[in-house]
Each structure stands twice: as structure tokens, then as C-alpha cells.
Amino acid sequence: MTVSAKLCLHDVVEARMLEVFGRPANTVTDHSHWMLSAGLEASALSAHLVLDGTADRPTLLLFDPVNRHGEEVLSKTVVTKPEDIEDALEAIKSRLKHRNKA
After folding, report:
1. Distance CA 96, CA 66 (A)
2. Radius of gyration for the alpha carbons in the chain, expressed in angstroms and rounded
3. Contact (Cβ atoms closer than 8 angstroms) between residue 21 and residue 40
4. I need a labelling partner for 94 at 20 to 30 A (CA). Which of 28, 62, 74, 101 fits?
5. How does residue 37 score in pLDDT terms, banded at 50, 70 and 90?
6. CA–CA separation, 36 and 70 (whole Å)
């Protein structure tokens, strides 16, 4: 895969994340950061989702300090092909949906 193809994949991931999660809270160069609360009360800790814009391949990092189901606090998903995008986003949405349940 060429560098330009990888950059295109990053753009596809970023566009899909904008559709699903809206505008990021912060963007620095090719690194975008979303703060996600999934409807939790205002005082709850947000989950933080980062799209890493490395030239190699897009990487999604999710830091979720609410760890009620034995999940890792930090998860990393590397997107290597367009088919990976929806699975990664569904996993993130599912985690956010269940993070506030006891």
C-alpha cells in the first residue's frame, strides 16, 4: 500500500467519525480528539477518542476511565482497510452505550 493510499484511508476514517461523533473537541495537525459522554450526567468522566494521523495507518485510541465491565481503560484499534472502520466504530458505540450501566 502506498503512502497516498494510507492517507486516503485516514481521510475516510476521519469523515466517518465526523458523521458518527460530530466535530472533534480538538485537532492538532492530523490528530483529532473527541470527548464522549454517551448521555452520562454532567459530572461523569468523559471517554476520550483520538484519531492518530500517522502516515502508516489510521489508529483509534479510546481512553475510557469508567471501567465497570472489566474492560481495558485504553483500547487501540488499527484500521488497515476500509472494511475495518464500521466494526471499530460499532465497538466504540457499544462500549459507550454500556459504560453507565451498573
Report:
1. 10
2. 14
3. no
4. 28
5. confident
6. 19
Helix 3-21 × helix 83-98 angle, to 10°? 30
Kindly state the DSSP code that residue 10 receives in the 8-state scheme.
H
Could you report the per-residue pLDDT of 58-74, keeping only the tens digit for each?
999 999 887 666 777 88
Q: How far apart are CA 58 and CA 12, in angstroms?
A: 10
Rounded average pLDDT over 18-33: 90
| DSSP one-letter code for 45 | P
Nearest in space to 25 (alpha carbons), one of 38, 17, 34:
34
CB-CB contact of 38 with 99 (8 Å):
yes
Q: The cell 488499527 sits on which residue?
A: 78
Cell digits for 45? Answer: 468522566
CA distance 44 to 31: 25
Only one residue has cell 484511508, namely 9
Please, are residues 13 and 75 in contact by the beta-carbon 8 Å criterion?
A: no
